[in-house]
Amino acid sequence: MQVTLFQALISANIAEDVAARAVAAVEEHIDMTVGLANKPLEAQIAALRTTMDARFGSMEAKLDAGLKGMQTSIDGLKWFLILQGTALVGIASYVQLVK
Fold first, then answer.
1. Would the pTM of this model clear 0.85, i.e. be above it?
2. Local structure of residue 14 (DSSP, 8 states)
């Protein structure tokens, strides 16, 4: 836009320095307007990021708790199988001795 606006101002017999200042002022206004328009969007993005971080943290904590519970259950099953195996070996040995 800068070149087109500048050329239009020059063709309208506006002095180059005045045309350059006009183009700079328009660009500054556009930058300011876009910046102001983006502020609410940036705030929404920041709020969404905070919300998502909190939710992911909560989900991670729940998963960790679930995994710890599963590990406890697995450890219990290991001990149950060890005791069952020991009992079966003991019974098998006893049966062999009784014969």
1. no
2. -
